[in-house]
Design a protein that fits this description.
alpha/beta; Molybdenum Cofactor Biosythetic Enzyme, Chain A; Molybdopterin biosynthesis moea protein, domain 2; 4 domains; six-stranded mixed sheet; 28 strands; binds adenosine monophosphate; binds magnesium ion
């Protein structure tokens, strides 16, 4: 048995970042930029007005109120070549329009009488006010988004601003999902005696999709060697293989043996974590193979703690673990020494602290508690008693935090 931390570091040091592909800008959302992108031009491209108002020479406006002759009009989209603000004059200008030669300030229309031929200014004018200067946001040639950046709407806006229709991002791995067990039937059928619906395939596919990777459900391997061989081989055609169940020490647990027969190199089996103890991890060539326990709660938790960070690393993410923060326990928790325990909790804000209370019955067979959990508390292996009022490490579970 290896520790929870060792298991995770073994996995993370065994997986590599996927290759790079160029995709249309909108398809890059949520993905990681694979190359620095430099600005092909300045932003703003030219000096322009930050307000609707009048382009003026500030020296003309030292006494307030002052009156200027309006000599021109520059709406957004107009060109300013040949337009000059002469001494004693002003050019009416709209937000975003290029500023004319000679002007060193813009006076907002609200601070004037809105005159058409003559305009009276009512407020003091400061040199440089309400001007957006060429290159003040981004200079031509500078890297405005770096390799490793997560592409969100602001990055999309910036990339679009500089005309980037196609964007280099890391590829999304195809993740094969294989369920095992004679008791399983597919969603859509009604379970008869001894049967259960293959729900793990769906929750794994959902979790894979949440990371941004591409799930591919392979089906159900039956509890015999032939069926395992056939479907594991199919799964090994993907970039990553995740199996559920059949990985403990039971008579019908064939996953590890058949993977070995097919040439996979097991890096560990059995981890000091509860739920999730029987988890195994192997490499088949460069393909990571996660063999997760079959109990739906264990499957989801081991995906969360082991497979998710690996998939994120493969897609180029720099931060692959959810940030841990402290929460105060509302009730005492006892556990055995020797294994990390993962507790499903609800969170509540109390002034500056988070309060964590149990989301329900913590037995691994209780799926409902997982549904009610906003976060997971990670209790360290060596401790046994956590008093009410004690602080523990927690992280959010899932990308939706409506449960808080
Ligand atoms: P096993 O590791 O094969 O002993 O399975 C452990 C438990 O998980 C058993 O109660 C199984 O019925 C359940 N289980 C296994 N595979 C799935 C699945 N695909 N969906 C839902 N439950 C499953
Ligand atoms: Mg089984």
């Amino acid at each position: 048995m290896i520790s929870f931390e060792e298991a995770r570091s073994t996995i993370l040091s065994s997986v590599n970042v996927c290759g790079v592909e160029r995709v249309p800008l909108l398809d890059a959302v949520g993905r990681i930029l694979a190359e620095d992108v430099t600005a092909p031009w300045n932003m703003p491209l030219w000096d322009n007005s930050a307000m609707d108002g009048y382009a003026v020479r500030s020296a003309d406006c030292s006494k307030i109120p002052c009156q200027l002759v309006v000599t021109g009009f520059l709406p957004a989209g107009a060109r300013a070549d040949g337009v000059t603000v002469e001494a004693g004059s002003a050019v009416r200008i709209m937000t975003g329009a290029p500023t004319p030669f000679g002007c060193d300030a813009v006076v907002p229309v609200e601070e004037t009488d809105d005159g058409q031929q003559l305009v009276t200014l009512n407020e003091m004018v400061e040199k440089g006010q309400h001007l957006r200067l060429c290159g003040e946001d981004v200079q031509a040639g500078s890297a405005f988004v770096r390799a490793g950046a997560l592409i969100r709407p602001p990055e999309v806006n910036m990339l679009a601003t500089f005309g980037m229709a196609m964007v280099p991002v890391y590829r999304r791995p195809v993740v094969a999902i294989l369920s095992t067990g004679d008791e399983l039937i597919e969603l859509g059928k009604t379970p008869g005696p001894g049967e259960i619906i293959n729900s793990n395939a769906l929750s794994l596919a959902a979790a894979v999709r949440e990371t941004g990777a591409i799930p591919r459900i392979i089906g159900i391997a039956r509890d015999n060697l032939g069926s395992h061989r056939e479907l594991l081989l199919e799964g090994l055609k993907a970039d990553v293989l995740i199996t559920s169940a059949g990985v403990s020490a039971g008579d019908c647990d064939f996953v590890r043996d058949v993977l070995e027969e097919l040439g996979a190199r097991q890096l560990f089996w059995k981890v000091g974590v509860k739920p999730g103890g029987p988890t195994a991890f192997a490499l088949h060539g460069a393909i990571p193979v996660f063999s997760l326990p079959g109990n739906p709660v264990s499957t989801m938790m081991t995906f969360e703690e082991f497979a998710r960070p690996a998939l994120l690393k493969m897609m180029g993410h720099q931060r692959v673990l959810r940030p841990l923060f402290k929460a105060v326990l509302c009730e005492e928790v006892r556990k055995k020494a020797g294994k990390v325990q993962i507790v499903r909790v609800r969170l509540e804000r109390d002034g500056k602290r988070w309060l964590a209370s149990s989301a329900g019955n913590q037995q691994t067979a209780i799926l409902k508690t997982m549904v009610d959990a906003a976060a997971l508390a990670i209790l360290p292996a060596d401790s046994t008693v956590f008093a009410a009022g004690e602080e523990v490490d927690v992280h959010f579970y899932g990308s939706h935090i409506d449960l808080i």
